[in-house]
UniProtKB/TrEMBL annotation:
SMART domains in the cross-refs: HhH1
NCBIfam families, alphabetized: competence protein ComEA helix-hairpin-helix repeat region (TIGR00426)
Keyword Membrane: yes
Biased composition (Basic and acidic residues): 60-71
Residues that span the membrane, as ranges: 15-35
GO molecular function: DNA binding
Cited SUPFAM superfamilies: RuvA domain 2-like
Biased composition (Low complexity): 157-172
This protein's name: Helix-hairpin-helix DNA-binding motif class 1 domain-containing protein
Length: 234
């Protein structure tokens, strides 16, 4: 088959070389298959771990929700026990500081009067000082020489109606030359600050020669004068 020894050796070398290549190919294929299988097993285990983590997280979230519910229940319980709400009360009449006051629903009329400061000639004979306050309540404190009942209304929309009835029932005009501070406060739209300016002007100039002289006081312009002129005289 082989002519000489050299050809035999050459054939053996060729066969070894080809065998080495075949072995390398087989090893490469085997390694590829092993690696692929290992990668698939790794991927198969990942969802299980994720599912386990998610399950634990859900448990924690559930515990947090339970704790939040307990906290909310405690807050609601405290609110019910305290029972206090913020209310706004409008007070007018024989007080030094007529205004809208921010109070608590557990406060009484006496509490808001302590803030508004009663005038010396305020008439409390028909005022229930122990009455609890409600939101949008209007409280009118009458003067001692005023024959009117105190007004305590919950509906703020009735305030304008009350003002109209009060104005229309004022048959006696206020004499700006002789009226006291309390009497001047009865003029609609004239507050304590304006009353003091009227009295100061009257003392400096001895008298108001006519009701139009009121316009000489700062803050009493034509519009204000037109609104109050039917309630005043000299």
């Amino acid at each position: 088959m082989f002519k000489d020894k050299k050809e035999l050796l050459y054939a053996i070398k060729q066969w070894k070389f080809q065998l080495s290549i075949i072995i390398l190919v087989i090893i490469s294929i085997a390694l590829f298959l092993i690696y692929s299988k290992s990668d698939e097993e790794t991927n198969d285990t990942k969802p299980i771990v994720t599912s386990h983590v998610n399950s634990n997280q859900k448990g924690k979230n559930h515990d947090v929700l339970k704790n939040d519910d307990k906290t909310n229940n405690k807050i609601e319980s405290n609110t019910i026990q305290n029972g206090d709400e913020i209310v706004f009360v409008d007070i007018k009449g024989a007080v030094e500081h007529p205004n809208v006051y921010k109070m608590k629903s557990s406060d009484r009329i006496k509490d808001v009067l302590d803030k508004a400061k009663l005038l010396t000639d305020a008439d409390l004979s028909q005022v229930n000082l122990s009455e609890k306050l409600t939101d949008q309540k209007l409280i009118y404190i009458p003067f001692a020489n005023e024959n009117k009942n105190p007004i305590t209304q919950n509906d703020a929309n009735n305030k304008s109606g009350h003002s109209k009835s009060l104005n229309s029932s004022s048959t006696n005009k206020v004499n700006i030359n002789t009226a006291s501070e309390a009497e001047l406060l009865k003029i609609p739209g004239v507050g304590p600050a304006k009353v003091r300016e009227i009295i100061d002007y009257r003392q400096k100039n001895n008298t108001f020669h006519s009701i139009e002289d009121l316009k000489n006081i700062k803050g009493i312009g034509d519009k204000t004068f037109e609104r109050i002129k039917e309630y005043i005289t000299t």
